Amino acid sequence: MRRAIYPGSFDPVTNGHLDIIQRGCKLFDEIIVAVLVNPEKEAFFTIEERCEILTEVLKTIDRRDCRVTVESFGGLMVQYAAERSANAIVRGIRAISDYEYELQMALMNRRLRPDLETVFMMPAEEYSYVSSRLVKEVFQLGAHISELVPPLVEERMRKRMNLVPELRA
Ligand code: PNS
């Protein structure tokens, strides 16, 4: 039984994240998409919203025989991974610029829990520039994001912007 944790902020989930999960489904029997609870980071969606959106959009991707679930977690990721008896952490790497930070985290996590492997995966080229941060930024400035995020995310972002008009650029 190969169980992986795919941790992140997912604020919001992008097509790049879904691409990584789909690829991960070829390697693992189970993937837990773990949404970090970080009260210090100002977020667009709440943890509950992010988990709910993820749960919905994950139904639309090809998961093969892999069981994909969504949970939130706080504290040390390796501790959480141990509690879930996970064998691996999955992280997506888009460009060399991601690598430095990801390598630092992977090595720190390895020091904290040597038996837990970090698996770096590359998304499809068309998502190599897509990040949650830039999606939020261009959306708030009026750009279309339909090719970057699942339709539900765009819909929920539109709703949120209507509810909070002062966020409009
Ligand atoms: O999507 P993100 O924001 O790049 O994800 C970062 C995440 C959640 C993987 C990272 O911040 C994390 O693991 N946080 C939990 C706290 C922790 O274990 N920190 C030590 C990392 S070496």
What does it look like?
This protein has about 170 residues and is an alpha/beta fold. The protein contains six helices and five strands. The chain has a five-stranded parallel sheet, sandwiched between helices. Strand 2 (about 30-35), helix 2 (about 45-60) and strand 3 form a beta-alpha-beta unit. The longest helix is centred in the middle third of the chain and has 17 residues, at about 95-110. It starts with a strand and ends in a 6-residue tail after the last helix. About 30% of the residues are buried. The model has no long low-confidence stretch (mean pLDDT about 95). The structure holds 4'-phosphopantetheine. 4'-phosphopantetheine binds near residues 8 and 108.
Question: Into which percent range does the helicity of residues fall?
Answer: 40-55%
The radius of gyration is 16 Å
Give the count of helical stretches: 6
Mean pLDDT: 95
Tell me the fraction of residues in β-strands, as a range: 15-25%
Order of helices and strands: EHEHEHEHEHH
Beta strand count: 5
Strand arrangement in the largest pleated sheet: 3-2-1-4-5
Terminal residue distance: 48 Å
3D shape? globular
**Parts with pLDDT < 50 across at least 5 consecutive residues:** none
Quaternary organisation? single chain
The largest β sheet comes out as: 5 strands, parallel
Question: What structural class is derived from the secondary structure elements?
Answer: alpha/beta
Name the hetero compounds present. Answer: 4'-phosphopantetheine
